[in-house]
Fold:
Amino acid sequence: MSQDGLQQKYRLLQSLLEQMGSVLVAYSGGVDSTFLLKVAHDVLGEQAVAVTACSQTYPARELEEARAMAREIGARHLIIVSEELEIPGFADNPPDRCYFCKSELFSKLLQVARAEGLRYIVDGTNRDDLAEHRPGRQAAQELGIRSPLLEAGLGKGEIRALSRELGLPTWGKPSMACLSSRFPYGVAITREKLKMVEEAEEYLRGLGFRQVRVRHHEDIARIEVGPEEMSRFLAGGFGEAIARRLKELGYTYVVLDLEGYRPGSLNEVLKKGAR
Structure:
């Protein structure tokens, strides 16, 4: 994508938001929603409000970072409570789990938008998301949620590039997903298991690993780190300490995935089944 083409998409995004007039931004503090909030605030000012759903599946670290980033942008930021584990069917962890979660989330955001007098709810879905298993998209479409980044044709790399131009520190932030994405489909999700995963990942980040996932296979913790961090993991003498800490958290076995981090690795079973 040329710089002219990138700027054309950026202007289209600004135009889309201007036409909307007022928006509630479904804001997680990740790369996409932070960029969307920044542009929406630049275009609409006080008519762009960020709302973050706090829940057991949303890491505490992410909430604090989201708060700090919203303050830096200057946007009004509301926090609501979302109880995914109480949604019928969610904790059973079926392949369409995200549909239940997003239906509940967007329904709550619609209530907030009405109370605040905001015309649209917008999320950070981008062009690259269409290639992934995203049941939550159906919920967004059913409830009339807009995805301006997608409408402007922006992909993840372009969003990072524009974020860097705007001076957003999130331009290089590792991809993040809710903690429920650490569980193979069919493995029940509980508060205790979510806490195990969150504390395990926090420990690994404390050792300096940036792109980290701890996939929860009941008594097995399968660790994924970024491919560029794999050699450091293997050569750094971390294995014994990591195994000891994760066993303290409740795991029996601790393994390193030799393919490294890749988004949606637990969806590979769905692709295999489709074949």
